[in-house]
User: Which sequence fits this backbone?
């Protein structure tokens, strides 16, 4: 099972772009990279998923280099409401036991 | 937008009692999961369920726990003989495809064992 490593916490300011990098050195060929967001006392919420290169949706972009040993979640122009914990996970259908790390606690300041 | 629902939102029980946490996954999803999150700690996988049987379970999911899909819509987690350390948020999730793909989480049930 691929293990992920993320910074424990990050601070930024409203209107800034925030990039959170996740390391997953032993990612398997069939693994996807998925990011979730969690607010206090709520269930995690899917943000974005990718396999390689770049994926963009209405809330974030995910950059994955060719070796796929890391990935970067990019949040454009953050607001105070983006303050949350962000989790990076890797896995596929055969990795039923997705391992959740401690995540990155992102604090956005005014 | 379809969502996963969970009941109750908060359950208080005495040590040694049995509790059943209920979840209604998204209707066209085939994979169901239970997770636990102790206050201030990381999300922990408990069990996954597919095709009416457990697909995978973690070390946490011992004989004290069981899951069931009693009908076509509900998915339950039973915790027998609760202990103080079972106090946590319990999240149900479902996905259209397997675990490595997008999972939709419910709002959680806060279990307090006294």
Assistant:
């Amino acid at each position: 099972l691929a293990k992920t490593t993320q910074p424990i916490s990050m601070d930024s300011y409203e209107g800034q772009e925030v990039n959170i990098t996740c390391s997953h050195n032993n990612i398997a060929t069939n693994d996807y990279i998925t990011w979730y967001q969690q607010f206090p006392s709520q269930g995690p919420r899917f943000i974005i998923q990718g396999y390689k290169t770049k994926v963009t949706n209405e809330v974030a972009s995910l950059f994955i280099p060719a070796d796929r040993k890391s990935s970067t979640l990019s949040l454009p122009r953050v607001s105070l409401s983006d303050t949350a914990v962000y989790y990076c996970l890797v896995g596929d259908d055969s990795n039923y036991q997705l391992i959740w790390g401690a995540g990155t606690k992102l604090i956005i300041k005014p | 937008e379809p969502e996963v629902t969970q009941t109750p939102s908060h359950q208080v029980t005495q040590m040694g009692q049995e509790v059943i946490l209920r979840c209604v996954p998204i209707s066209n999803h085939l994979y169901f999961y239970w997770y636990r999150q102790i206050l201030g700690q990381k999300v922990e996988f408990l069990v996954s369920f597919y095709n009416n049987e457990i697909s995978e379970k973690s070390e946490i999911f011992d004989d004290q726990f069981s899951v069931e899909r009693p009908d076509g819509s509900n998915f339950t987690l039973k915790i027998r003989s609760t202990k103080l350390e079972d106090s946590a948020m319990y999240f149900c999730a479902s996905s259209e495809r397997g675990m490595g793909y997008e999972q939709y989480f419910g709002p959680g049930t806060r279990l307090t064992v006294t």
